[in-house]
Amino acid sequence: MPRTKLFSGPGDKRITRALCIVAHPDDIEFYCAGSVAQMTERGVAVDFVVATSGDKGTRDERQTRAQLAATREREQKAAAKILGALNVTFLGLPDAELEENLGLRQVFVREIRRSRPDVVLTFDPTPGYRQHPDHRVVGRVTLDAAWPSARDLLTFPKAGTPHNTAEAWCFAGPNPNLEVDVSAQLEIKIRARLAHASQTPSPAGLRARWRHIAKVERFHQVDLR
Which CATH number among 3.40.50.1970, 3.40.190.170, 3.40.50.2000, 3.40.50.10320 corresponds to the domain 17-223? Predict the structure, then answer.
């Protein structure tokens, strides 16, 4: 029996639901916002799960963690609205302290079973370059949650009805095998990223730079069928 072909990209008609699982507010906008916009533009239902609220992402000594988390959640919700995402779930875990464990895997299984995506977008956990530790953890645990945990009836039975996600698209890794031209979505991608004002000391500089470097998004496709 011939093997099912991998998705061709965000425009593949077989994709009707997608889920982004990331570590911090603004991760989606950095790495896959153009692809998200391509999907939502044609009616794909896209959900976001953000493990932390980025409560340590500042050099301003006047900011408390609670204040920063509230700001960054507002910014992420604004960016999600620009991109056309349906739901944003904040898990509220402490920034820079994520751990690879069964508790986190169960939470991700719950979110996958709730969203029921055809494709999940997350970090490539492959080591070999400087990477935030939360990114590596989220990538590894998401892949383990998507396959086989979310699929199997007897794994975390209280986390919802089993679901088999067809593919994972891993970004920010060293060996991409899918390139997506997002030049048509570049302006919306930039607007979504600029919604994270607390993380953008120079909006004009980011806009100018991204007009040159942000027209292509790269992923490593993982077949979970």
Answer: 3.40.50.10320
